[in-house]
Amino acid sequence: MQGTGPTTRVVLKDAERAMVEEVVYKVLENCPGQTEYRYLTFLKEHVDTPIGRIRETYESAEGQPVLLSNLPRFENVEHSKILALLIGQTVGNCVAYSDYNGSYITDIRATELSREKSAGTDLLAMHNDLAWASDVCRPRTLVLVPHMAEGVVPRTLLAPATEVVARLDPAAIEILRSPVFEARSGSSLGWKYERVRKMALLEEAAGKLVVRLNFSAFTPAAHLEGEQRAAAAAAHQQLHDAALAVGRVRGHAALQGEALIIPNDHCLHGRDPIDSGACRRLLLRSYVVPDSVVEHHGRTMISLER
């Protein structure tokens, strides 16, 4: 079943699509056989953002994901990588995470060799990417660009925080707004130790609702006992259930020629199960942060240890 998808959409005009295509070709022609960092540097130094209304729409979307359509389609995956970086640079700053994947582009596809949850074929639970990371290194925006999407394409499940919270009980909301959850991170990354942070899973930032959910990273805090621990666990589960219910309504099967721009703090996302025998799919993901984050680090390779 196809969902209703994002309510905010930008359809490129044919002239705009041709402009984007020209930029992508120009970057690869000037950086043949080079790295994503070189693509990104060339974009920053030599290319003006071609379509300003994409950023304007995204910034006015109030925490809603944005669907771009009528984008150029490419056979060469390097062109699609540049497109993902270009869209990312249009709405912020593309970054790489040194302790996560060390790359400016992550390929998302079902593969037996990857340990990432997104590389499986089962239902991908609703989550925010790296939700436990601090404000100075957490991706604020995700850009998803399908390079290949053929056959029975799974939906990307999208759950804006406001719609999720509307399904929660007041008692659960009160618990989720309290810092009674622990975020455990680092055990599967490059760190030599596990980091534990106490956090609330719902909060307000700049007048917008922020939600934090990341697979099994969050648990009720160790100091909670008895009824408090049970109540926190029940509220956590209710958040999972509400996010999945909204995600299934808002799901969208992104195809070539489209891109999803997802506000990571304000919209949960997941994925329907994949029938690997009926689908060929390669999704490219870039992470985007605001200017203030890049200024804090002084570079675009960000360490999650910050």
UniProtKB/TrEMBL annotation:
Gene3D superfamilies according to UniProt: Clavaminate synthase-like
Domain of life per record: Bacteria
InterPro entries for the chain: TauD-like_sf, TauD/TfdA-like
Database matches in SUPFAM superfamilies: Clavaminate synthase-like
Signal peptide region: none
Residues covered by the TauD/TfdA-like domain: 64-287
Keyword set includes GTP-binding: no
One Pfam family hit: TauD
GO molecular function: oxidoreductase activity
Keywords carried by this UniProt record: Iron, Oxidoreductase
Protein name from the UniProt record: TauD/TfdA-like domain-containing protein
